[in-house]
Design goal:
Layout: E1 6-8, H1 14-22, E2 27-30, H2 40-48, E3 56-63, E4 66-73, E5 77-78, H3 80-86, E6 92-94, H4 97-104, E7 121-125, E8 134-140, E9 143-147, H5 149-156, E10 159-161, E11 164-165
Length: about 170
């Protein structure tokens, strides 16, 4: 059952603070998070009434010993080999969840590519460029931020590359 998304002006997370400080145009979407839902990203898409290919999840991977953020559509999966190649690495694996949380300052299911405690290199799946706006976590479960993919790339110094797969 889809939940109705609520729109807010500001949520006060490090992600929204960073967006506001940068003067970036964005919209915050809040919804009631259901801890029993099997997928944070799919739950967000359903709650907001947005197609899953416009909602992107933030994953943290270890590429040759360096934590790297991958932003991919919730409807797909991360291609670890493609991620490694996108940053000039040889091998990638998903990062330890506790390390990802400590490094970014966010909890799993609420990790945002914006406003992280430690700025990590970031790769956004090139499919983001197919949309005028995309949604990513605003820094906590039940809170998404909608913005132009070019703005997200600029704010995170991201590389766009085909790192997502169906």
């Amino acid at each position: 059952m889809a939940k109705k998304a609520k729109k807010q002006q500001s949520a006060g997370t490090p992600a929204t603070v960073a967006l506001t400080a940068a003067g970036t145009t964005f919209t915050v979407h809040a919804y009631d998070h259901d801890p029993s839902h099997p997928s944070y990203g799919e739950e967000a898409a359903e709650a907001m009434g947005v197609l899953p290919d416009r909602v992107f999840k933030t994953l943290v991977a270890d590429v040759d010993g360096h934590l790297t953020v991958a932003v991919v559509p919730v409807a797909g999966r991360l291609d670890l080999k493609a991620l490694a190649a996108a940053v000039g690495g040889k091998r990638a694996a998903m990062a330890d969840p506790a390390l990802a949380e400590r490094t970014t300052g966010y909890v799993r299911g609420g990790i945002s590519p914006l406003g992280q405690r430690k700025k990590l290199r970031t790769v956004i799946d090139s499919s983001a460029g197919l949309h005028a706006t995309i949604c990513v976590s605003a820094g906590r479960r039940g809170l998404e931020v909608e913005l132009a993919p070019g703005d997200l790339a600029a704010l995170t110094d991201a590389v766009l590359a085909p790192v997502g797969r169906a």
